[in-house]
UniProtKB/TrEMBL annotation:
Gene Ontology CC annotation, any one: nucleus
GO biological process, one term: regulatory ncRNA-mediated heterochromatin formation
Taxonomy, superkingdom: Eukaryota
Listed Pfam families: Arb2
GO molecular function annotations of the record: siRNA binding
Domain Arb2: 15-299
Transmembrane segments: none
Name recorded for this polypeptide: Arb2 domain-containing protein
Length: 380
């Protein structure tokens, strides 16, 4: 019988976590291109060995994260560590907030997908056509900072960028990582299995799950760092949308936060009207909530009312398109202006309620429209 000794196994490759070291640069369109071939974008498959490809991608992602964080700092965004008062070497998850958050009278909170790093929308945009600002939160942050809090307050809204993705703690590296990064952590050799995840040692106190993280954002971050009279707008994407909905659908949470919640944009959610338990939250959602789903329709197109129709589920609020037919991760990157513009519309009207929408085309036949509009509520 033969066996490989540890010393004889192929060593884990190491790639530099900077663009130049990886052979890339940022062109005048803010796109990452190959130094060797400026027409080429990031190349994932550099070898037939998947481990090599994954580690090269992780090095690239780290370089991208560093660039995004530097740009956020220039936009007057501040990084804080959760839980509060934790040392940088202890288990923590980073988030970004407006540096003057305490003075803001309206705050926009983003709960993004649980498989992306903080500040990243879609690597397919960052590493391809569109570039870094377009594929990250940078353009959205700039757009929010150009808006007014309300009709009587010219100050820009505050921003909280939650972090549902990086809830695993890498003890040796002393940093929070995504599950994707976890599988690219340094190993003794190329053939080692991924590290086992300890449910206590490799998670973060008060933020061990996406449920806990959403609760921590409200019960600690908003409660302690935001003006008690400030209104709150929430953007939830995929897991972020589901967990935010579940949070508000609890009696004590809705009693405490419902009066301050001004609008809720739910993107790529898989929570439907039938999943909502509380009538008061459900009633509010019909008037102050909007769902955005994948669709080939132009960005901003109305698709269905709160009760849905044959081709679209009932989300409990009007459903719209953001112009993205396939990828949930690119929805907000492409349609953030539509979402923020709606928030502005709500903020400008104290008595705002979603208007009645009608749609007459291939999505709804005349028979369907006639059947679904008999209650005088939202159309198709």
């Amino acid at each position: 019988m033969f066996r490989h000794l540890q010393a004889g196994l192929p060593k884990d490759p190491v790639y530099p976590a900077d663009l130049a070291g990886l052979g890339y640069f940022i062109n005048d369109k803010d796109e990452i291109r190959s130094i060797e071939n400026p027409k080429a974008y990031f190349k994932f498959f550099i070898t037939r060995n998947d481990r090599y490809n994954r580690l090269q991608r992780e090095a690239m992602n780290q370089a991208i994260r560093d660039i995004i964080f530097k740009r956020l700092l220039k936009l007057d965004m501040e990084k804080i560590l959760l839980p509060f008062c934790v040392a940088a070497t202890e288990p923590h998850v980073p988030i970004y907030i407006s540096s003057n958050l305490e003075s803001k009278k309206r705050v926009i909170i983003l709960f993004y997908e649980n498989n992306q790093e903080l500040g990243v929308f879609a690597h397919r945009i960052i590493g391809g056509k569109g570039g870094i600002n377009a594929g990250s939160v940078i353009n959205m942050v700039k757009y929010i900072q150009s808006q007014k809090t309300s009709a009587v307050c010219d100050d820009a809204p505050g921003i909280i960028l939650a972090n549902l993705g990086e809830l695993l703690w890498w003890r040796r590296g002393k940093k929070a990582v995504t599950i994707k990064s976890w599988h690219a952590l340094p190993q003794k050799s190329v053939v080692e299995p991924p590290y086992r995840i300890d449910p206590v040692k490799n998670t973060i106190t008060g933020n061990r799950s996406t449920d806990e993280h959403v609760a921590y954002i409200f019960e600690r971050v908003v409660k302690e760092l935001v003006d008690p009279k400030a209104k709150i707008n929430v953007i939830g994407v995929s897991e972020g949308a589901n967990k935010a909905t579940e949070f508000f659908d609890q009696e004590e949470n809705w009693k405490r936060w419902g009066p301050r919640l001004e609008a809720f944009a739910s993107l790529a959610t898989y929570t439907f009207a039938s999943d909502i338990k509380r009538k008061d939250f459900g009633d509010w959602l019909r008037t102050r909530g909007r769902a955005y789903i994948t669709s080939e329709e132009p960005c901003g197109s109305f698709l269905a009312g709160p009760d849905g129709h044959r081709r679209i589920e009932a989300y409990g609020c009007p459903a719209f398109s953001l112009g993205e037919p396939y990828y949930t991760e690119t929805m907000l990157a492409n349609g953030y202006k539509t979402v923020i513009d709606w928030f502005q519309e709500v903020a400008a009207d104290t008595y705002y309620a979603n208007p009645e929408f009608q749609r007459y085309d291939s999505y709804c036949s005349d028979a369907e429209t006639e059947h679904e509009d008999t209650d005088g509520a939202f159309g198709c």
